[in-house]
Design goal:
The chain is α+β, with helices and mostly antiparallel strands. It has two domains: about 260 residues, Distorted Sandwich (Beta-galactosidase, Chain A, domain 5); about 325 residues, Glycosidases (TIM Barrel, Alpha-Beta Barrel). Helix content is about 20%, strand content about 30%. The strands form six sheets. Strands 6, 7, 8, 9, 10, 14, 15, 16, 17, 18, 19, 20 and 21 form a 13-stranded antiparallel β-sheet that branches. A hairpin with a 4-residue loop joins strand 7 and strand 8. Helix 8 crosses helix 9. The longest helix has 19 residues. It is globular and about 80 Å long. The N and C termini lie far apart (about 65 Å).
């Protein structure tokens, strides 16, 4: 072990040094003289009964050498637990930290490196002013000041919406990266959590509980981490928090890759098994923005001459078999036929059981078979968590009422298996689609009142839904796909096709947002097809063809507009109109240029020459 322990106060490792400073209640980790993180010796495990506070200063209970690390144990008293200890393990290349509690209760939040001693709020000290969050969001705000709040979460919360407008992905690597003020040095801080231990909803930095909000200068932040459990984790005698791992690296993406390797060793990174279907690398057309543009065209223009935007239900109402066929025929007639068609909201009569709407799609099987005759695959839009059309007995509870489809309910599980077979199987009476576009995943149920049949919450509840759907997809059709918008390592094995998602950004074009999301997804799912989504709606400044060309270099090119052009940005007048010959020519050029990063290959494999150019009816 290449570690030194000096004077029972200093630990020296090959890549860092640590000083224990009891008088300041800090453990200071350094990488050079100016890049450091002073970790508070206080941490807290708040229960639903109340905040976890101490009456005495924390003390060093043990500092000793082990076979491959130096161990430090901090003893603290607690107002809600019978006993509480904090543990550091100093390895040659990293530091791991966790807390143990004894007693009974349910956990609200776990805080790492922030706590209360009597009436004093003790927190941490950064030797850096900025950090990077890998969680894609609707402001494209990945770089933050060290005083700001950030979360990597299973879904949105009011705090997240207030900070970044909303999540663009449901989950990302559970790792923040802190950046030296000069140079490329970085400090990764990630949660090493095992399967079955993801009951939390969010991994946070700088969450401000009421005690911090009441402090004299709460704007400065605590520079502490937290896991938000919302009462969904029980302690029955003894419980250990997930480990927080801190490790220095050179550059933010190197730091993320190192974290992912450690997470895989811990079991929390579950890789996709088998090949990604080759057909997912063909150009995509989705109906949604044609629906949005059509619905908007029916609304009156404001007094300022600005076209109003239609509501979601109005947009969903206009999707019919006739219009979907017309939009596909428009692209085909202009030599821009896609390889995949996504029927978006709302081809179904209800979003819980997903039976085809008998008026809008009187014979969905006939329509899908017609698409197949054109060599076009079909994916069907689903709304995650929707209980529309479901009996109360198949729903989870929120605030005591049936509120969402419960993937842990055995009756609902049986329904989903039959439903997905009906959607994807080629058997008589089934629709014979090729995959599912699963939407709504960034709005899962959460909070203290959530109750499910299996007792799951947070990332565990989302994984239960995705596993249920993915298993049903592969049972119904061997090359069927479940499409998602995520870069969560705990969900990687359930995803066959990545969407970069709604491309909201503070910028006037979505290209850098699209590229970042694609890069992140490929870090977690190497070789996956990345659908670059409906970029043109969010492109307010770039020439039409330039945005399409950017999509083709980022991943699988995709258009959401076959007939009507719509470009929209907050506080700007929407651009509307019909696509013309120039637009269709730009689509053809972009689709010819498309070079997939991989197709029909396992994670990490190279790209066979046979799939370097993707055949589709789009390009002749």
């Amino acid at each position: 072990m290449n570690m030194q322990l000096r004077h029972q106060r200093t630990i020296v490792a090959p890549g860092y040094a640590v000083e224990i400073v009891p008088e300041k209640m800090l453990v200071v980790m350094r990488h050079g003289p100016r890049f450091y993180y002073g970790m508070s010796m206080c941490s807290a495990v708040d229960s639903m009964r109340g905040a976890d506070t101490g009456g005495r200063r924390p003390r060093v209970a043990e500092l000793a050498r082990r076979a491959d690390h130096v161990a430090l144990t901090i003893a603290c008293d607690s107002s809600v637990w019978e006993k509480k200890t904090h543990h550091y393990a100093f390895y040659a290349d990293r530091v791991e930290y966790w807390t143990e509690v004894w007693g009974r209760g349910t956990i609200d939040r776990v805080y790492y490196f922030r706590g209360t001693v009597a009436d004093f709020e003790a927190a941490s000290v950064p030797g850096f002013s900025r950090f990077f969050s890998p969680q894609p969001n609707f402001l494209e705000k990945q770089d933050l000041h060290v005083s700001e709040y950030a979360a990597i979460a299973a879904g949105n919360t009011p705090e997240i919406i207030g900070a970044v407008r909303g999540l663009a992905f449901h989950g990302a690597p559970l790792c923040f990266v802190f950046c030296a003020d000069a140079g490329a040095d970085a400090l990764a801080a990630g949660i090493l959590v095992r399967p079955g231990e993801h009951q939390f909803h969010a991994f946070e930095f700088n969450y401000r509980p009421p005690r911090v909000q009441r402090a004299p200068e709460p704007i400065a932040g605590t520079q502490a981490f937290s896991l938000a459990y919302y009462g969904q984790q029980a302690v029955r005698g003894h419980w250990t928090t997930p480990r927080l791992c801190l490790r220095f690296a050179r550059g933010r993406f190197t730091a993320l890759r190192q974290y992912l390797r450690l997470l895989e060793r811990a079991g929390g990174f579950i890789r996709h098994a088998g090949d990604y279907p080759a057909w997912t690398f063909r150009p995509v057309y989705c109906t949604w923005h044609d629906q949005v543009a059509l619905a908007a065209s029916r609304l009156p223009v404001s007094r300022a001459g600005v076209r109003r935007m239609a509501s979601g239900p109005d947009c969903a109402a206009v999707l019919t078999r006739r219009r979907a066929a017309r939009w596909l025929n428009l692209l085909s007639a202009r030599r821009a036929r896609p390889g995949t068609l996504i029927l978006d909201a709302q081809w179904q009569a209800d979003t819980g059981d997903n039976l085809a709407d008998p008026v809008k799609f009187p014979d969905l099987r006939e329509f899908i078979d017609w698409c197949h005759s054109l060599d076009v695959k079909v994916m069907l839009w689903l709304q995650a968590w929707s209980r529309a059309g479901l009996p109360d007995g198949e729903c989870g509870l929120q605030n005591g009422r049936p509120a969402f489809a419960d993937p842990t309910n055995p009756i609902y599980q049986k329904r989903v298996t039959g439903m997905v077979r009906r959607l994807l199987s080629a058997d008589p009476g089934c629709y014979n689609a090729d995959g599912l576009k699963c939407d709504g995943l960034s709005s899962p149920p959460y909070g203290p009142s959530v109750r499910t049949a299996g007792g799951l919450a947070g990332f565990e509840l989302t994984r239960a839904l995705l596993t249920l759907l993915h298993t049903a997809v592969k049972t119904a059709k061997t090359d069927g796909v479940l499409g998602q918008y995520t870069a969560c390592p705990y969900f990687a094995d359930t995803c066959d096709f990545i969407r970069t998602g709604d491309l909201y950004t503070v910028k006037g074009d979505p290209c850098t947002a699209n590229a970042f999301r694609a890069r992140l997804a490929r870090m977690v799912m190497p070789g996956v097809a990345v659908d670059t989504d409906g970029a043109e709606l969010f492109n307010y400044v770039m020439p039409y063809g330039d945005c399409l060309q950017a999509q083709a270099t980022i991943g699988v090119p995709c258009v959401y507009q076959a007939e009507r052009l719509l470009q929209h940005r907050d506080f700007c007048a929407p651009v509307t109109g019909k696509l013309d010959a120039g637009h269709y020519a730009a689509i053809r050029r972009a689709w010819r240029r498309a070079r997939p990063a991989g197709a029909g290959v396992p994670a990490g494999a190279g790209v066979p020459a046979s799939v370097r150019r993707v055949r589709s009816g789009a390009v002749n």
